[in-house]
Amino acid sequence: MRAVRLALSPVLLAAFAAPAFAQQPAAPAAAAQQEPLTAEQQAQVARQDAEMGAAAQQVLQMIDANRAAEVWDGASQTMKAAVGRDEFVSQLQADRTRLGAPSRRDAPVVSRSQFREGDAVPAGIYVNVAFPTTFALQPEPIRELVSFRLDEDRTWRVSGYSVR
């Protein structure tokens, strides 16, 4: 079923967009803890984790290659409303000047969140992919985060990047 797979074609990845997998509205935390995922649901989550991790790797490769402007060009409108293209590019350049080039990225950790109207973050469903990354000028690993938002057209797009 195409709607269940997060299909990441080269054309879509170039624009940092991919069709969303069949997404259920986020359940309240208490209900999610009471009902364990079925084996099929666990497999679906694992597939999405791997696919979103791969998409985040492609975003990082573009950032590493000084193509941050292209990342912004394909980003979610929520990101574009929060930060302008020139500001995004200059902040990434400043971070890389301070940290140096990445020398090692460990396995990503994927998390999900949902925000409602009125929250500090624009409403929507988000997937965050965090990498413990070591940079040339930073001997201890720090968190490098690529965030994706499920946009209104049911397409995942980059909604943020940060290093902390």
UniProtKB/TrEMBL annotation:
Keywords from the named record = Signal
Signal sequence residues = 1-22
Q: InterPro entries from the entry?
A: DUF4019
Domain of life, per lineage: Bacteria
Cited Pfam families: DUF4019
**Name of the protein described by the UniProt record:** DUF4019 domain-containing protein
Species this chain originates from: Luteimonas deserti
